[in-house]
Amino acid sequence: MDADTILADITQMLAQVIGEDYLLEVDVTMDTAFSGDLELESIEFVALAGLMKEHYGAAVDFVGFLADMDLHEIIALRVGQVVDHIWLCLEAVGSRG
Amino acid sequence: MADVVANGVRFHVQQLTPPPGFAPDSPDSGEARPSVVFIHGLVMDNLSSFYYTLANPLAAAGADVLLYDLRGHGLSERPPLGYALEDSVEDLVGLLFELGIDGPVHIVGNSYGGTVGLAFAMAYPSRVASLVLVEGHFAVQGWGEEMARTLWGIAFGMELEEARTWVASAGRKMTRMAGKADALINGTSLVEDLLTAVPLPRQPLASLACPVLAMYGDESDVIDRARDLASLVPDFTLNILQGCGHSILMEVPAHLRAVLAWWFAGRVGPAPLYQPPVLDPPSASAAHPLAELVAG
Fold first, then answer.
1. Can you list the alpha helix ranges (DSSP code H) found in chain B?
2. Domain A3-96: which CATH class?
3. Nearest by Cα to B144 from B180, B124, B119, B121
């Protein structure tokens, strides 16, 4: 799975969480900040992380990813950081399997 | 699973498990992982405050974590009724049942979430392995009126023209948060239920079997509750944070994580003490970095 596919997946999940109408006004890129650009409420980011966990399963470790960040780092997260993390986890599984 | 119906209400829940590599949960072999439930505070709070600060690190350290939005909060359903403390306790009972969690759990409660944890531990002592209060409210005489007054203050503040203008200009996030708080305060029985709240009985606290850890800021408006509890609860560890107020979860999460790690590792040695940051005195040649914030 490449980064573009993961970005498209996340964009689709974002639409589920905050609604397609709002998302139509924003071009989601790797540089888009969840809080600063998308104005995601903190509880909406949690819901998004829950959807990603369901979608990618145990192969992607979101707990470890977020546990290593402090509050300000999570608030400042950009879409590209999450895409990169998912890609690295999936690559690791692929190379093992 | 993100939505669970319990006690007749749809709750938004998040369950976090340790990353791959941790031993699977196996209660039969005596290696059961600790099961930790986080309960957030009232109105402007939801499960994300714990999710962003303590929950993921605790899961990463090997705990099974359950977070949920209280009824009317976050992404949970907002029914018009059922906001008494007893309802909150029965909501938790229902959630644990629906999720098949029947062993003792460790409860971590922030502010009102601590009150729920205390009431749950008193009503169902065998279900609680330990209780962690983060600035927990202790339902003493007048507690409900005090909480209701605070909520009225928020509601009144939001009615002011300046506040409405500011919220409208602050964008999607603030508009939604203000709207939810308004709907909860003015569209449900929350305030009414708080006004009719009865104090927690003091005598059962003296026979509370589970260990209790309490973390409070020494400048908090509920620090007296901590001292009150310390005089009543047998196994009570009080961790006071100098120079901090009520919002220690957001202000100093790193210290709270350190104390939780000590708590879950078996309380070996003294509990970590909070060291307030030492700020350099301002010099004539360079303004202190905080000066701009203070002035602003």
1. 48-50, 56-60, 85-98, 112-123, 143-159, 161-169, 172-187, 190-195, 223-232, 248-251, 253-264, 291-295
2. mainly alpha
3. B119
Tell me the percentage of chain A whose pLDDT exceeds 70: 97
- Can you give the residue range of the structural domain that contains B165? 141-198
CB contacts < 8 Å between A and B, how many? 64
- Cβ of A67 within 8 Å of Cβ of B53? The answer is no
Give the closest of B48, B57, B253 to A42, CB-based: B48
Whether the pLDDT of residue B120 is over 90: the answer is yes
- The pLDDT assigned to B159 comes to 63
Residues B94 and B230 in one domain: yes
The model's pLDDT over B2-48, given as tens digits with 9 standing for 90+, comes to: 899 999 999 999 999 998 777 665 545 456 789 999 999 998 899 99
Domain co-membership, B71 together with B183:
no
B30 lies in the same domain as B135? yes
